[in-house]
Design brief:
5-stranded antiparallel beta sheet, alpha+beta
Length: 621
């Protein structure tokens, strides 16, 4: 049955075992090579079949038949798959394909490809007869293909560059401290970095394909009018205060022609605090400039008036005139006190923030204020401030709160309750409220109480108490609001929440007589983690060093106010405290050379990093 099946195949097939003896072949194999029956019987040897075919001249002229037979046997024994074509003497072209069998042995298929070869030759001949026009088209097509390949390469490179640029752009937008986004004409985000939650706390970071109203929540109501204007083609930049923890947010809308809007929003709370403080400093400078001359002249006039009233008092005038003289003197003295208050308000009040324990400030405030209150007025403190130290000016804050407590006392009369409550709003503000159970602010007071010289106390008030508190708060970059509650009046102070750096180096004594330089060096030391006390002269520094045993080191200028120098300070402190001297004197100056012989010297100007490096090196000695 196997032989019958093989006989149905058009190709010649032979299968030899691993001893190169014929296992089976079909009739086409015998017919193709004109083999005798003995060579197509199972067991016929492969080498005899090759020899017979060679002797018949099937391989063409062969000088050494045995060599040919041996090479074919060696090839068969190698059991390597092979394919080749050869032309027989009768002009027939056959392909010979051999492959090893997995069980051992070899199968070879012989195919008559004469017709196929003739068709190929015909096609080749016809192809050579192609017209010049077809060849031209082929060349043009080839050139076009080359151009297309070049274009594709350029496109791939452009795509790569765009991918790199897009990655860099996204990385840049993610690193920026701002929310950068784009919404389409329907208000859905098509692009956004992941910074929304850092700008508006409580909102999601992944807002792609989310509607802007859903992403922003309550803040959307504050930006909606500006967004509508942007959809109409109007660019805008505006600011608003969000409700979560009262951050100040700046938003810029830029419309695009396709109907969408680009959005840039950032948290400018610290910038606003600094701006408020700077604006208040400028207002105070202008007020000081305007009032200093007037205050000087009025002070002279009041001095003259008091002097003349003193002379009149000694002239033995009638009792009625004496009363007028006394009233004039009291009024002039009150005018002098008012001038002093104006000078305090517009003078050079410098904010000195230091690491401050709010718990201690509020406890001290209660101790200071309680003796000035009538027995019928109670004072309670609700302290919800954090345990960590905050950067505040405790003196100015305490003065402001005492002022508010005394105002509340006056409002309550002989009985009532004053409450001070303090808490934080996020990590943005510390809010302090002073409330009382008095009659509350009048409508006019709510509008004008922060204006200088407005008072509801008649002749008893100067109208400068609340404005001075307002000035203090603004200098710190905060805000103040007046409110009425069902139980009375409330004054709400908001100050920037700034945690004090953890002190690493203890208490530093800074000795510098130039105020601007002293502020610069103080900031350097605070940023390096030191608590700082200051002096302007050698005597003041020695007094502080004697009273404060916790001082870790001294940073002093060489040239100070007075006759004594930083060298004298180093001599008087001797080995009690490490001292670092600083100077802008050249190396050739004798004082500079003498200072170098006494210890480390910082040459002005220097940076915080340079100061830090010197402090570290001194600490390791």
């Amino acid at each position: 049955m196997t032989t019958a099946g093989l006989n149905l195949i058009a190709q010649a097939i032979s299968i030899y075992d691993d001893d190169l003896k014929l296992a089976v072949c079909n009739r086409r194999f015998q017919e193709m090579f004109y083999l005798p029956d003995a060579l197509v019987q199972p067991g016929a040897r492969f080498d005899e079949t090759i020899r017979y075919i060679a002797e018949r001249g099937d391989y063409g002229p062969v000088t050494d038949i045995e060599t040919l037979v041996q090479s074919r046997v060696d090839q068969a024994l190698a059991f390597v798959p092979h394919y080749f074509e050869r032309v027989r003497p009768n002009g027939q072209v056959i392909s010979i394909e051999g492959a090893p069998l997995t069980e051992g042995g070899w199968v070879t298929v012989y195919t008559d490809i004469t017709r196929t070869k003739r068709v190929e030759e015909l096609l080749r001949a016809r192809s050579e007869e192609l017209s010049d026009q077809l060849l031209s088209h082929a060349e043009e097509l080839s050139a076009t293909n080359r151009e297309l390949a070049a274009t594709n390469s350029a496109l791939e490179e452009t795509k790569r560059q765009l991918t790199v640029t897009e990655a860099r752009t996204r990385l840049t937008t993610e690193m920026m401290p701002a929310h950068i986004a784009h919404v389409d004409a329907k208000g859905y985000y098509t692009y956004s970095n992941r910074r929304l939650s850092s700008v508006i706390p409580g909102r999601p970071s992944n807002i792609l394909r989310m509607h802007i109203a859903e992403a922003l929540g309550p803040a959307f109501n504050k930006i909606e009018p500006h967004l509508k204007a942007a959809y109409s083609g109007e660019s805008s930049v505006f600011e608003f205060t969000e409700d979560h923890d009262s951050r100040r947010i700046r938003v810029a809308f830029t419309p695009e022609e396709s109907g969408g809007v680009y959005i840039l929003s950032m948290d400018i709370t610290e910038e606003t605090q600094a701006r408020v403080a700077l604006q208040q400093s400028r207002r105070r400078a202008m007020a000081a400039q305007m009032t200093s001359g007037l205050a000087h002249d009025f002070s002279n006039l009041l001095t003259i008036i008091l002097g003349m009233q003193s002379k009149l008092e000694r002239m033995g005038l009638p009792e009625e005139a004496a009363k007028l003289i006394a009233a004039t003197q009291q009024t002039a003295q009150r005018g002098g006190r008012l001038l002093n208050r104006i000078a305090d308000m517009t003078g050079n009040r410098t904010l000195r923030p230091v690491a401050t324990d709010m718990h201690g400030v509020l406890e001290d405030l209660k101790l200071l204020a309680t003796p000035s209150l009538p027995q019928g007025i109670g004072l309670s403190v609700l302290d919800h401030t954090p345990d960590e130290a905050l950067m505040l000016d405790p003196g100015m804050l305490q003065d402001a709160l005492l002022n508010l407590i005394l105002n509340a006392r006056d409002a309550c009369g002989t009985s009532g309750q004053i409450t001070i409550s303090a808490h934080t709003i996020g990590n943005i503000w510390i809010e302090i409220t002073v409330s009382d159970t008095g009659p509350g602010f009048s409508k006019e007071a709510l509008e004008k109480a922060l204006n200088p010289f407005f008072t509801s106390k008649g002749s008893e008030g100067s109208g400068l108490g609340l404005p001075m508190v307002y000035d203090t708060v603004k200098l710190a970059g905060g805000d103040l609001q007046l409110r009425n509650s069902p139980s009375g009046a409330s004054v709400v102070l908001r100050l920037p929440y700034r945690a004090a750096p953890h002190s690493k180096g203890g208490l530093a004594l800074l000795v510098e007589d130039n105020e601007d330089l002293r502020a610069t060096f103080r900031d350097m030391l605070v940023e390096l983690g030191h608590t700082v006390i200051e002096a302007t002269s050698v005597d003041e520094a020695c007094a502080l060093a004697a009273d404060l045993p916790d001082i870790s080191f001294v940073l002093s200028d060489i040239k100070l106010e007075g006759l004594a120098t930083g060298l004298d300070l180093a001599e008087r402190l001797k080995n009690d405290l490490p001292i670092i001297l600083m100077t802008s004197l050249p190396l050739s100056d004798p004082l500079h050379r003498q200072a170098l012989a006494m210890g480390p010297v910082m040459r002005k100007p220097f940076t915080r990093a340079q100061l830090s490096a010197l402090l570290r090196s001194e600490a390791h000695r």
